[in-house]
């Protein structure tokens, strides 16, 4: 690790912890090693700039580590004409990377909550998915982190999150099963306690339970 290595705070909802972040030069050297490991020549013309591009792409693909979901959701408002029924944002597209193979999994998120202390801007629900999706994930963990962030910041009467995704580590490699989707969901509050509320969520999302 060279002298430019620096500590970075990873912003999760939990206690922030510090990791040592390698330098750009170290990241690029690692990419060159992987190119050679794959069987190609990192010094050939077409690959010379690839390590720099990969490092830049990683900054974007894993940009969620530098973002705080609490800040995304902190601004709520109450002027909604007394509306207190389900707010559902469905079909939020996301791209994440599985933490086992660092290969994409791609899908849609559906997020609902029952307001208690005000509502949040609708785009913020999509943004919170982005914050967590742009980290190394399992689909289960992604589901749990999204709903925990909503509960801790909005304090709703209940929340529901469903994710459906296709995992490239199951299609491009390994078991090679195409067209398989994985569904995960989590309910809290009224959604966890009341089967009717769950059924309303499924109906609005357009899925069977
Ligand atoms: N539960 C869960 N499993 C995942 C997720 N993404 C990938 N996996 C699985 O993680 C498992 C890792 O299994 P291992 O046996 O350690 O690794 P592997 O030899 O690469 O496994 P194969 O994919 O079966 O070739 C695989 O079964 C993947 O399908 C996820 O989001 N959630
Ligand atoms: Zn995987």
Annotation keywords:
single chain; 209 residues; alpha+beta; GTP Cyclohydrolase I, Chain A, domain 1; GTP Cyclohydrolase I, domain 2; 2 domains; five-stranded mixed β-sheet; two-stranded antiparallel sheet; 9 helices; 9 strands; disordered N terminus; binds guanosine-5'-triphosphate; binds zinc ion; GTP-binding; GTP_CycHdrlase_I_CS; EC 3.5.4.16; GTP cyclohydrolase 1
Content of β-strand = 25-35%
Number of domains: 2
| Name of the CATH homologous superfamily of the largest domain | GTP cyclohydrolase I, C-terminal domain/NADPH-dependent 7-cyano-7-deazaguanine reductase, N-terminal domain
The side-by-side strand order for the widest beta sheet comes to: 7-4-5-8-9
Strand count, sense and barrel status of the largest sheet are: 5 strands, mixed
Share of helix, binned: 25-40%
Globally, the shape reads: elongated
The chain-level structural class is alpha+beta
Contiguous helical run count: 9
CATH topology of the largest domain: GTP Cyclohydrolase I, domain 2
Count of individual beta strands: 9
CATH architecture of the largest domain: 2-Layer Sandwich
- Give the CA-CA distance, first to last residue: 51 Å
Protein name: GTP cyclohydrolase 1
Family: Belongs to the GTP cyclohydrolase I family.
Enzyme class: hydrolase
Keywords: GTP-binding, Hydrolase, Metal-binding, Nucleotide-binding, One-carbon metabolism, Zinc
Describe the protein.
This protein has nine helices and nine strands. With 209 residues, it is α+β, with helices and mostly antiparallel strands. It has two domains: 6-61, GTP cyclohydrolase I, N-terminal domain (GTP Cyclohydrolase I, Chain A, domain 1, Orthogonal Bundle), CATH 1.10.286.10; 80-205, 2-Layer Sandwich (GTP Cyclohydrolase I, domain 2), CATH 3.30.1130. Helix 1 crosses helix 3 (50-61) and helix 5 (122-133) packs across helix 6. The radius of gyration is 20 Å and the shape is elongated. Bound molecules: guanosine-5'-triphosphate and zinc ion (ZN). Residues 98, 100-101, 103, 167, 169 line the site of zinc ion. Belongs to the GTP cyclohydrolase I family. Residues 28-205 form the GTP cyclohydrolase I domain. Its EC number is 3.5.4.16. Pathway: Cofactor biosynthesis; 7,8-dihydroneopterin triphosphate biosynthesis; 7,8-dihydroneopterin triphosphate from GTP: step 1/1.
